[in-house]
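so the lab meeting is tmrw and i was supposed to have these ready like two days ago... anyway. pasting both below. for each one the top line is the aa sequence and the line under it is the structure tokens. i havent really looked at them closely yet so no promises
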Amino acid sequence: MKSENRMPKREKKYKERTTDEVISKDLMTIPNAISFIRILMITPFVALFISKMYIPAAIIILMSGLSDCVDGYIARRFHQESELGKILDPLADKLTLIAVGVCLIFIEPFVLPLMVIMVLKDILMLIGGTIVIQKGVIPPKSVWYGKVSTALFYVSVVVIVSMTILNIKNELVSLILLAVTAAFMIFSLVKYAFMFFNIMREVKESEEKKTLKASVTE
């Protein structure tokens, strides 16, 4: 007699779902609306920063960061987590991060190497995400190492730029901050690369099973 307590089948780590289905179902949620607003906030931030109105620009970035925390809380508390949100929220993060980084380069060129690493990382992640989506798979949500690397970037640029504005010269501190942040960004990229290859492997296995099943039924 077969045992009734069978081991559960291994669950897939990704969802096969078309982009059209995700957008039409998940567009109208509060967290997604907040993410859209965060993207729109980038324009006034850049305008204020260029006008050397640094305090209002900083307030906008602070509001963007706080709203990012709020939208995550609302999504979890009211069960409004969505597949679109998994794409839109990190997109808002990345666009804001790039805008901040580019603006800060004009104050402190020392930030440029870190900005280059961050942009290369995001470009590679964007390419990987595009490939995954083309396979009919929604990329997984951001994980802790991605969030930590983002936080380290903000801390590093704020400290370095603040030192520059206050005319405090300490290249050792700046170098340590940049080195630690760059190292963690590279670490995050490697971890995301492993995640990408695992997803692609599971997609390949799924496609092979479907092909085999189709050939059997024929």
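ok protien two:
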Amino acid sequence: MNWNALFAVVIATASSTHAAIVANWSQDELSGPIIDSTSNHLPGTETGFATYGMAGVPNGTYGGITVNSAFGTSIEYGPINQDEFFTVGFDNNNPVLNLDATGKFTVMGWMNPYPLLDATPRSYKILSTGSAAGVDRGWGLALRLTQMDGTGSSVRFTGFGIADNDSMQFALTLNTWIHVAVTYDNGLITYFLNGAMLDTDTRAFGNEGANARLVIGSRLGGNDSDQMNGLLDGIRVYDEVLTEGQIQQAATDSVSLIPEPSTAALGLAALFCLGTRSRRR
């Protein structure tokens, strides 16, 4: 058997799911800036007083997503009416801010939403681009809450200065981990909850201006209605449209102790080494 060829195929296959990843914020930090493990972005600088070292996503089944090797912690944003977020970098020159309105990408994250503080609807922002009042366009991913009991909730993808786009509504169990994702394909928005597609919208966002910034947990220049209120974990961005199965796998990987390449690839790599040793005897 040609072990070299097999090993090459395995590594290529194992890494293909993640080949398009351009950002990964694990939320595992215990203090200081948050780090993009892909090294594509500068550290995220904190505003306010987020709480580090909170419990992360535990093992379990979340719709179409199964987590078996849970690892790491999460960061708490809120619940007080105080800005608590991270600004990534000092300008708009980074991969996420440069995703084009005519292009393709996938954005996702785990969140454990706390109840609304009052009857005022809010958008719990996971990640957003742009600047104050949408002047610099951009986009954002959020969970939209309208009722204090979690009913009437939706996944929201906002094109700042253009429109708020919401998925079909669903009943949400508060204080519970969920995974939300959106794929974007030249204006086609597809919403996912716990690895399952909800529905679609068609609306393009505006490309970023010079003052746009990348923010985790809020929107730059936003008010309390844009603040995350709860826990965030495993935030990722890909520069292509992932399938439903790829979203489920990426969601699992983002909160699991699974090195890349996958354990399957490492196992076959070990076989490759054994095969090489056998040939040399």
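from a quick look at the 2nd one: Confidence is low (pLDDT under 50) at residues 1-18, 260-281. The longest strand covers residues 104-113. will dig more after coffe
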